[in-house]
Specification:
By secondary structure, this protein is of the alpha/beta class. The chain has four domains: 174 residues, no CATH class; 70 residues; 129 residues, no CATH class; 91 residues. It is built from 15 helices and 15 strands. Strands 11-12-13-14-15 form a five-stranded mixed β-sheet, covered by helices on one side. It has a four-stranded mixed β-sheet with strand order 7-8-9-10, with helices on both faces. It has a three-stranded antiparallel β-sheet with strand order 1-2-3. Helix 4 runs antiparallel to helix 6 and helix 10 packs across helix 14. The chain starts with a helix and ends with a strand.
């Protein structure tokens, strides 16, 4: 039987029992097999449709109060029996749990005047709640009250709906069921990407150029953006965090001064003298020159005079990770007008450029010597500076992870797990959700936290819960703001 055939049978049965006046819709999957009859609420002005499930081919009636109010309960129950006969099959274990939780929820919520709603979450747990109707958006909004973990996710929501007692009763009864989630199988194509993405992130980490919160922007292939499954995203982040945590412990055993510290100090001196000086500046030499140009232009706009540049790229860093000497590129950083004229230079102009570039090289070599290195350089403007003695490249993360403010989009909320490792982070904004919430985070430096929500009601409902969590997870926090659309409320801690 095809999906279309099954849908047709469901639609015919619904019309025969309930008539043509109701706005009903059907969906079905013959492979399951399972089908649903839905009640459609149609906006007369816009034609938008808001959908709620009335029943399924498992025989349950989900909108009992809705049917009772319209004097249709007997017909709806008759239709439910016909649907079971239409698609007879034994409920799977997952379907049995869904029916059990729905029946329990109906016992608690129907006496309070609400049809119960049950939804599966990505964690494999079930959430129980009610629907409210958003007339502006013309849709039914699921309002979770309790979960099969045995908890009330937002006490503020239960209070707003006047269902605190019911939420607590539901949480107790659901927790007593002893439900153990069985998540859906992981998508194999995405799972196959995880090792490569982790390797790429850690490679960027070892280059030590970008702060942790930017590492995922520079991966290339395999692409982090091709992993959509929340569990697999979390697996990537957990492996990355484990490596970062281990590095933090390892750094405690490092000598007070390592070669990278001396190179940092030399580059700081050069920056103060008008140089662009960057480590692991790009993936290639040409990319390093582009980075130099961008930084030079930025500093010129701020009124600085740029003397020259010195950098090494990620290929140089990868070689130095194996103990090979670092090769430094250097030279002048022309402005755009000079670049455009370069091919028109006379021999005298070329010679002048070479002499100026060699002068830049001499300054660099002098500063490197002052910081304990014995660089090798021919003195010719076209030859690289080789940093001696050779050392294994490693850099203290405190020099790299200098992010002070960070705003995360909803689609990448899992990256919030990195806030723990950003020692200078002062202000952070993100969308909490099932994937990651405040319970998963901590930071000793964070002073300002902003949480974004889709609806004003969600922001208000969450306030009490998130304030308590924030006090526990962020000891230095001074203020917490919840925001949704035009609504904003700040709590001083």
């Amino acid at each position: 039987m095809e999906n279309e055939e099954l849908q047709g049978q469901l639609r015919q049965a619904a019309r025969e029992v309930l008539g043509e006046e109701l706005e009903l819709g059907v969906v079905a999957w013959a492979s399951s097999p399972r089908g649903y009859v839905n009640v459609d609420e149609v906006d007369p002005d816009s034609g938008q449709v808001a959908v709620r499930t009335l029943m399924s081919t498992l025989g349950e009636v989900r909108l009992r109060l809705w049917a009772k109010e319209r004097g249709l309960l007997e017909q709806v129950e008759t239709l439910a029996k016909r649907l079971v006969a239409l698609v007879p099959h034994a409920p799977s274990e997952k379907e049995q749990w869904e029916l059990k939780v729905l029946a329990l929820a109906q016992e608690v919520l129907e006496p309070a005047g609400h049809d119960a709603v049950v939804e599966w979450r990505g964690s494999g747990h079930l959430e129980v709640g009610v629907h409210t109707f958003d007339k502006d958006e013309w849709r039914f909004q699921f309002e979770a009250l309790a979960t099969t973990r045995g908890d009330v996710p937002e006490s503020g929501r239960a209070r707003r709906l006047g269902l605190v007692a019911q939420a607590l009763e539901l949480a107790a009864k659901l927790g007593a069921l002893g439900f153990q989630p069985t998540p859906d199988p992981e998508p194999e194509d995405e799972a196959a990407l995880v090792p490569g993405v982790v390797e790429a992130v850690l490679e960027q980490f070892e280059y030590a150029h970008h702060p942790l919160n930017r590492l995922f922007d520079y991966l290339g292939m395999p692409d982090w953006d091709d992993i959509y499954d929340d569990r697999l995203q979390r697996r990537v982040l957990e492996q990355v965090c484990a490596h970062v945590r281990a590095r933090a412990e390892e750094e405690k055993t490092w000598p007070d001064v390592i070669p990278a510290d001396r190179l940092e100090a030399a580059f700081d001196v050069l920056r103060a003298r008008g140089f662009v000086a960057e480590m692991s500046a790009s993936t290639t030499m040409s990319g390093g020159w582009e980075v130099s140009r961008e930084l030079a232009d930025m500093r010129r706009e701020q009124g600085e005079t740029i003397v020259g540049t010195v950098f090494f790229d990620q290929q140089d860093a990868a070689s130095a990770m194996k103990g090979h000497p670092l090769h430094l590129a250097y030279g002048l950083v022309n402005d755009e007008e000079d670049d455009g004229r370069e091919e028109e230079f006379t021999a005298e102009e070329d010679a002048k450029v070479s002499e100026d570039a060699a002068a830049v090289g001499r300054i660099i070599v002098e500063v490197l010597r002052e910081h304990g290195f014995t660089p090798e350089w021919s003195g010719d403007a076209h030859s690289p500076i080789t940093l001696k003695p050779a050392f294994v490249w490693r850099r203290r993360r405190a020099r790299v992870d200098t992010t002070e403010t960070w705003s995360l989009g909803e689609g990448n909320r899992i990256l919030a797990l990195l806030v723990e490792f950003l020692p200078k982070l002062r202000a952070f904004e993100f969308f909490p959700g099932d994937t990651v919430g405040l319970r998963d985070l901590r930071s000793d430096s964070l002073r300002e936290l902003t949480l974004r929500y889709e609806r004003e009601e969600d922001a208000k409902d969450a306030l009490d819960t998130v304030v308590a969590q924030a006090r526990e997870r962020f000891p230095a926090l001074g203020s917490l703001t919840v925001r949704a659309g035009g609504f904003e409320q700040t709590v001083e801690l």
